[in-house]
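=== RUN LOG ===
request id: a7f3
mode: sequence -> structure
chains: 1
length: 456
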Amino acid sequence: MPGSSGRTIEVLNPANGEVVGETPAGTAEDVDRAVAAARAAFPGWAATPPAERAAVVRRIADGLKERAEQLATTITAEMGSPISLSRQAQATFPVLVAESMLGLVEDFAWSEELGTSLLVREPIGVVGAITPWNFPLQQIVSKLAPALLAGDTVVFKPSEIAPLTAEILAEVTHEAGLPAGVFNVVYGEGAVVGEAISAHPDIDMISFTGSTRAGKRIGAVAAATVKRVALELGGKGVTVILDDADFKAAVTRGIAMSFTNGGQVCGAWPRMLVPAARQDEVIALAKEILAGYSVGDPMDETTAIGPMASEAHREKVEGYIKRGIEEGATLVTGGPGNPFEKGAYVRPTIFADVDPSSAIAQEEIFGPVLTIIPYVDEEEAVAIANGTPYGLTMGVYGEPEHALKVASRLRAGQVDVNDGHWNPLAPFGGYKQSGNGREFGRAGLEEFLETKSIQR
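=== RESULT ===
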């Protein structure tokens, strides 16, 4: 199914290298056509009452529920997420996000009085949405649901590594009765399609999730047309274990937050800060807990860690593991080398005695690699936690009031205290080079709206 380029891009199963599908290699001309369709559809969709827009989003959420198993198996095939995770999170969380957004519409202040002024919140226009491969459905639904509810139209580019989910979503939106032109998918490479979307003068906003490097490029290109840019970028999260914490609970959660989805999570916690005097205790716990995480075929129900999403990414992660050894960190378990004869697999790895200024402690590895970093006192722990270019997610474990006090000092958009539960209505986004703007809840809806002041 070639696009205007006549080329297609193969989609490979990272567990075995087999071709599981293909998509068009889109061009700037394809983007032009999609934007024209979105621009033409915008007046009608923007004029549709919010309750009717919400009814369509409700049908989209219901359609995703009905296709949950198909979505789960597709995501596992295209990017290697273990099937248990695909069912429990990859295909489920997007529905929860959409449903949580629906609850906001009825009571949302589309207009309000402010003295002699009338404040009106209006759709921003045509939104360019660009998403990564690690949570392919959740990332787009987190943008599409609020954009549609706001009255915007959307031009969407999925990752070329994991684009097959987008086709299912497009079918669901059509079945839900979304008018033609409101949601448009353009497949292709970031350097071609992503660049064209970012630069397009008829796109009013870019909502991007992905690497900080790519986010910087998108921001620079989009600046030429002064469009709004919302960026959800990389992270270098941390588990801060205070001396008064339940160490087993803290390490158990820290391991889960480091190795879920093979560590390919922007909100992962790949650093673990521990009191220096108790590092050996933490090392023993971490090694024991990680030993219970099976690595293998992502379609096996018992697999906890599948392959990396691509061979190129496997090589990148393994390069960091080798670098950690070269930098002098203590290798606790794992290390370089593919544990299987084929597939993009990495050995789950733990380092200890990690220098907080080293590459493996500073740079986003985005793989199953945990760095244990000892600290002398609380001041040093806070300084280390805040001492990277990122500020997306962190966790603190300790006596509740003590942990909350430390959490207030951490420079991150989200901080969990003692296993705080995920709340789809809570704003999600980062400080520093982890991005700007917020997704989810009221803040996520407001990202896709303009505010007009009418003076009377």
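=== NOTES ===
The mean pLDDT is 97.
The CA atoms of residues 236 and 364 lie 6 Å apart.
=== END ===
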